[in-house]
Amino acid sequence: MASISSILEYVSGACSGTAHAADSIDDHSVALGMGHYVGILQIDGGSGTGSMQTTLRGHTARVNCVRAASDSLFVSGAGDGTARVWERSAGAWRCTGVLGTTSEAGGSVVGVAA
Questions:
Q1: Distance between CA 9 and CA 7 in Å, rounded?
Q2: Residues near 110 by beta carbon (within 8 Å), at least 6 away in sequence
Q3: DSSP-assigned beta bridge partners for residue 48
Q4: What are phi and psi of 53, to 5 degrees?
Q5: How confident is the model at residue 109 (pLDDT cuts 50, 70, 90)?
Q6: Is the pLDDT of residue 75 over 60?
């Protein structure tokens, strides 16, 4: 499998931007914090290249961190003060929980553990 750093390089070049956070979900998928979104990158094990499988929306500020708990669950944290729990069921990802609240007072989630 390609390394996280080579995946980030690939995504940054392909998106003309920067992935701010990344974690391997399983042997073929990586969760990437990209702007206000979380992208799921599907990796082709043979070539080490990948394609964006889906983009998950919900955060209203930059995604600072992602952490996989299993091959069907991960958590993302963002500058909007929330951590979101994402679960894969029947092949589709969806947000199943939101921790924290967005507020004008500020606050940013900069790290999560799963």
A1: 5
A2: 64, 65, 77
A3: none
A4: -80, -45
A5: confident
A6: yes
Q: Are 55 and 76 in contact (CB under 8 A)?
A: no
What is the C-alpha separation between 61 and 11, in angstroms, rounded? 20
> Is residue 1 scored above 50 in pLDDT?
no
Tokens of 50: 């990948």
Convert the pLDDT of each residue in 9-21 to its tens digit. Answer: 545 444 445 667 8
Spatial distance between the Cα atoms of 112 and 33, rounded to a whole number of angstroms: 13
Highest mean pLDDT among 23-37, 38-52, 86-100: 86-100
Q: Which two tokens stand for residue 23?
A: 């974690």
Evaluate whether 63 touches 77 at the Cβ level (below 8 Å).
yes
Comparing CA positions, the residue from 64, 74, 81, 63 lying closest to residue 114 is 74
